[in-house]
Amino acid sequence: MIFIRKVSTVLGAVALLAGGAAHAQSVTPVGGATPHAPSLTPEQVVTMQHDMDTALHYKLAPDVLPRLSATLRAIQAAKIQPPGHAGMSLDQQIALVGQVPGLEAILKAHGLDARSFVMS
């Protein structure tokens, strides 16, 4: 599940960077409207490229799936809702996860921290 989220995030970022050509090929205009890729500032592009590179080169621990699964069950049992991450950089996501009350103790109990949780 997390792997799918990670791949989805990376693929979404690639789609944004690819620009309007790829988007126009996959979307049929409705009512004559011309689809446009979202405009990104140069800083956003640099951040997105850095995040993609970081995610693609992040080494997952061999036992990450069982630990992550147990972590997610514990988070669910504690009724903690991890924050959303749409539109945020990896650093912003990691910082936000680190601020969720009660989450740090659960992550630590399963050998994770905010960074390894987000990256996994």
Beta strand count: 0
Q: Indicate the low-confidence ranges by residue numbers.
A: 1-5, 7-27
SS-based class = mainly alpha
Which whole number gives the mean pLDDT? 77
Q: Measured on Cα atoms, how large is the radius of gyration?
A: 17 Å
Level of helix content? 55-70%
Written overview of the protein:
- This protein has a domain at 58-120.
- 63% of the residues lie in helices and 0% in strands.
- It contains seven helices and no strands.
- The protein has helices at 2-18, 20-26, 42-57, 64-77, 90-98, 103-109, 114-119.
Structure summarized in a few sentences:
The chain is 63% helix and 0% strand. With 120 residues, it is mostly helical. It contains 7 helices and no strands.
